[in-house]
Amino acid sequence: MTPATNLRTVPLVRRYLTFTWVVLGTAGAIMVAAAAFQPSILIDTLVTGGMWALMAAGLALVFGVMNIPNFAHGELFLIGSLVGFTVFSPIQEAILENPDATLLKVIGPFPGMIAAAIVGAAVGVGLEVLLFRPLRRRSRSQWVMNTFLLTAGVSVLIVNLDRLVIGNDFRGITRYWDVRPIQVLGVSISVDRAMVFIIAITSIVLFALFLGRTRTGRAMRAVAQDEAGAQMAGIDLNRIFMLTLGLSSALAALAGASLLFMFPSFPDAGVQPLYLAWYVVILAGLGNVQGAIAGAFMVALLQTLTVYYVGVGWVDVLPTAFIILILLFKPSGLFGSEVKGVWEQ
Predict the structure, then answer these.
(1) 3-state secondary structure (DSSP) of residue 18
(2) How far apart are CA 87 and CA 54, in angstroms?
(3) DSSP secondary structure letters along 135-160
(4) DSSP-derived 3-state class of residue 280
(5) Nearest CA among 112, 120, 75 for reference residue 94
(6) What's the mean pLDDT when you consider all of the chain?
């Protein structure tokens, strides 16, 4: 290509990109306006976005720090839902036998959620120590592809173990808190959905403070930016990788237990949450944790608008089409995150 051709091409590319962002900005403004005129859309977007942000933040963290496309992330959601159901079931029976036990009614759901997060973290640490660490020692070539295949295999194993040991029955609950819905902006919201939003936002804030304000969190960010440099600075990579996968898995399991009233535990319970988490991470930019949290609310808004104005049957179709459109013009995602080292593997 000659210099003259280059000079003619640059303005065309600029006009093309400008037109693209105008179109996307207009679409975004229309979606926000539609939500503003319908308070129920705004409420549903906030509640649903908080749910998906938990899943997406953990998925983005493990990819950003460890370069692992974790396709077993949905099965960690499944493990969380199973642990939450197992722990809450006897508590629910105690509540039914003692209807005047007000304190038990209020705090009863939390032990199952806490237990799910702990078990999820333990499973994540186990996966790092037993699978990823030996693989890392043997070979770092084709790391992303190898870990993709490894996590896909773990996913199949967990699903089939659940089917073999537990069975195909649905194990869920109608609701955690047996109280009347609350009214927000004239919209009726179940207490369970409101509490899930509070739990999600609280977890995200604590997660952000951990990454930004603690020494370990800063070490994780340093490894994500430059693994070799972090190692030269004295950071223990094995410890960071173990904590990273444990924290990511804990977030996914917490989401599974918190959403038990919406996603009952059964072998394929983690499929839809996994797909949605990947939608968010790809839309925001691989490895971008902050972007993943923002992207979760974008995807939730797209889903809510689709349900309200198009139909529930299109709830995954239109968001997927929108993400494809974004990636055609900005392959690195909306927030332009590129994880160092991924493309060199």
Answers:
(1) helix
(2) 21
(3) HHHH--TTHHHHHHHHHHHHHHHHHH
(4) helix
(5) 112
(6) 82
- The one-letter amino acid at 172: G
Map 82-120 to HEC letters.
Answer: HHHHHHHHHHHHHHHHCCCCHHHHHHCHHHHHHHHHHHH
CA dihedral 80, 214, 61, 334 (to 10 degrees): 130
pLDDT reading at 27 higher than 70 = no
Calculate the alpha carbon distances from 35 to 238, 283, 304, 319, 321 in Å: 45, 20, 9, 16, 20
The encoded tokens of residue 306 equal 């689709």
Q: What is the arithmetic mean of pLDDT over 6-23?
A: 46
Cβ within 8 Å of residue 225, ≥6 positions away: 340
Q: What pLDDT score was predicted for residue 155? A: 95
255 in Cβ contact with 55 (< 8 Å): yes
Per-residue confidence (pLDDT) for residue 240, from 0 to 100: 94
CB < 8 Å & 24+ apart, contacts of 259-263? 259/51, 259/81, 259/196, 260/81, 260/84, 260/85, 260/88, 260/112, 260/172, 260/173, 260/176, 261/172, 261/173, 261/174, 261/175, 261/176, 261/192, 263/77, 263/81, 263/172
User: Which amino acid makes up residue 115?
Assistant: A
Between CA 285 and CA 331 the distance in angstroms is 8
Structure tokens at 276: 């949605």
Tokens of 195: 């509490």
Query: Helices (DSSP H) in the chain: which residue ranges?
Result: 3-37, 39-66, 73-97, 102-107, 109-127, 133-138, 143-165, 191-213, 215-225, 227-232, 237-258, 271-284, 289-309, 317-329
Q: Directed axis angle between helix 289-309 and helix 191-213, to 10°?
A: 160
Rounded distance between C-alpha atoms, residue 150 and residue 305, angstroms: 36
The per-residue pLDDT for 25 is 54
How many CB atoms are closer than 10 A to CB 218?
14
